[in-house]
C-alpha cells in the first residue's frame, strides 16, 4: 500500500462531500462505507483502511456485531424492493396496494423472469418470505405484506432488519446453541459426524415438506384458474397471464 493510501483523518475529509459526514462525526456504518467505497456522492474509491487493534477484533465477536452484516443485508434488500414497488415504471407488474400497506404482484412471471433479476438479483419470492414478508393474496395476482413496509415511509425499513436479526438470535439460542453443546459433549469424531448427519437429514426433510406444501398449493390455485378460464372462453383458450404462470411452474418442476 502506498504512503498516500495509509489511513488518516485528512484522507477522510478529502473524500467527503456535503451529503457525507466528515471523519470524526461518522457513525461506524458511514466510516465503513467511506473506507471500502469512498464517498457515495462523488463515486470515489480508496484503499484506506483504519488500523485495527486487538480490542476491535474482540468487539467484532460480540453477537450484535456478528449480526450487523445480516442486518445491513436485509436493509439493503428491502430498500431496493421498496424502490422497485414505488417505481411507476414497474406498475404493470408490481405496485402498491390501494392503502399502501402491502404490494400486489399482478404479473408474477414477468417479475421472476425480468424485474427481480435486474433490480434485486433474485428470480423468485423466496427471499421475501425468508425476511418476513407474508403472502396475503394467492392466485393470478399475489400480495405480500410486512410491518413497516409502507408506502411513503421508507424511514421505517430499518425495523425490518432489526426484527430479522432478533429472530436469528432467538433461533440461535433455541436451536444452534443446544446443537453446539451436543457436539461439545461428543467423545470422538465419529459421534460428532453422527450428530451433524442427523441434523442435516432433519433439515432436508423439513425443507422438502415445506416446498411440497407450497408447490401443491400453487398447482391447486392454478388448476382452479385454468378451469375458470375454460368455462368463460371458447375452445379453452387461456389468457396470456395464465399461460405465463403455467410455463413458470412447469419450469420449476
UniProtKB/TrEMBL annotation:
<dbReference type="GO" id="GO:0034605">
    <property type="term" value="P:cellular response to heat"/>
</dbReference>
<dbReference type="GO" id="GO:0000978">
    <property type="term" value="F:RNA polymerase II cis-regulatory region sequence-specific DNA binding"/>
</dbReference>
<keyword id="KW-0295">Fungicide</keyword>
<dbReference type="GO" id="GO:0050832">
    <property type="term" value="P:defense response to fungus"/>
</dbReference>
<dbReference type="GO" id="GO:0005576">
    <property type="term" value="C:extracellular region"/>
</dbReference>
<protein>
    <recommendedName>
        <fullName>HSF-type DNA-binding domain-containing protein</fullName>
    </recommendedName>
</protein>
<keyword id="KW-0732">Signal</keyword>
<dbReference type="InterPro" id="IPR000232">
    <property type="entry name" value="HSF_DNA-bd"/>
</dbReference>
<keyword id="KW-0929">Antimicrobial</keyword>
<dbReference type="GO" id="GO:0005634">
    <property type="term" value="C:nucleus"/>
</dbReference>
<feature type="domain" description="HSF-type DNA-binding">
    <location>
        <begin position="73"/>
        <end position="163"/>
    </location>
</feature>
<dbReference type="GO" id="GO:0031640">
    <property type="term" value="P:killing of cells of another organism"/>
</dbReference>
<dbReference type="InterPro" id="IPR022618">
    <property type="entry name" value="Defensin-like_20-28"/>
</dbReference>
<dbReference type="GO" id="GO:0003700">
    <property type="term" value="F:DNA-binding transcription factor activity"/>
</dbReference>
<keyword id="KW-0964">Secreted</keyword>
<dbReference type="GO" id="GO:0006357">
    <property type="term" value="P:regulation of transcription by RNA polymerase II"/>
</dbReference>
<comment type="similarity">
    <text>Belongs to the DEFL family.</text>
</comment>
<keyword id="KW-0611">Plant defense</keyword>
<keyword id="KW-0346">Stress response</keyword>
<keyword id="KW-0238">DNA-binding</keyword>
<dbReference type="InterPro" id="IPR036390">
    <property type="entry name" value="WH_DNA-bd_sf"/>
</dbReference>
<dbReference type="Pfam" id="PF10868">
    <property type="entry name" value="Defensin_like"/>
</dbReference>
<comment type="similarity">
    <text>Belongs to the HSF family.</text>
</comment>
<dbReference type="Pfam" id="PF00447">
    <property type="entry name" value="HSF_DNA-bind"/>
</dbReference>
<keyword id="KW-0539">Nucleus</keyword>
<dbReference type="InterPro" id="IPR036388">
    <property type="entry name" value="WH-like_DNA-bd_sf"/>
</dbReference>
Amino acid at each position: 500500500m502506498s504512503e498516500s493510501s495509509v489511513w488518516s483523518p485528512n484522507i477522510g475529509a478529502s473524500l467527503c462531500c456535503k451529503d457525507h459526514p466528515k471523519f470524526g462525526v461518522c457513525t461506524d456504518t458511514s466510516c465503513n462505507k467511506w473506507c471500502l467505497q469512498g464517498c457515495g456522492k462523488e463515486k470515489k474509491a480508496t484503499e484506506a483502511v483504519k488500523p485495527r487493534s486487538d480490542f476491535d477484533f474482540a468487539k467484532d465477536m460480540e453477537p450484535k456485531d456478528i449480526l450487523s452484516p445480516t442486518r445491513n443485508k436485509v436493509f439493503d434488500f428491502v430498500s431496493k424492493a421498496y424502490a422497485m414497488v414505488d417505481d411507476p415504471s414497474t406498475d404493470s407488474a408490481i405496485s402498491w396496494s390501494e392503502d399502501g400497506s402491502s404490494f400486489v404482484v399482478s404479473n408474477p412471471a414477468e417479475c421472476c423472469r425480468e424485474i427481480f433479476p435486474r433490480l434485486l438479483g433474485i428470480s423468485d419470492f423466496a427471499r421475501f418470505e425468508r425476511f418476513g414478508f407474508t403472502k396475503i393474496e394467492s392466485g393470478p395476482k399475489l400480495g405480500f405484506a410486512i410491518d413497516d413496509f409502507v408506502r411513503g415511509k421508507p424511514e421505517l425499513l430499518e425495523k425490518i432488519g432489526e426484527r430479522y436479526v432478533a429472530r436469528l438470535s432467538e433461533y440461535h439460542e433455541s436451536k444452534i446453541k443446544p446443537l453446539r453443546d451436543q457436539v461439545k459433549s461428543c467423545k470422538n469424531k465419529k459421534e460428532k459426524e453422527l450428530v451433524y448427519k442427523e441434523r442435516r437429514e432433519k433439515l432436508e426433510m423439513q425443507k422438502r415438506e415445506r416446498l411440497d406444501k407450497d408447490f401443491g398449493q400453487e398447482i391447486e390455485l392454478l388448476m382452479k384458474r385454468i378451469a375458470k378460464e375454460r368455462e368463460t372462453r371458447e375452445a379453452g383458450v387461456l389468457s396470456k397471464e395464465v399461460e405465463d404462470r403455467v410455463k413458470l411452474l412447469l419450469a420449476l418442476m
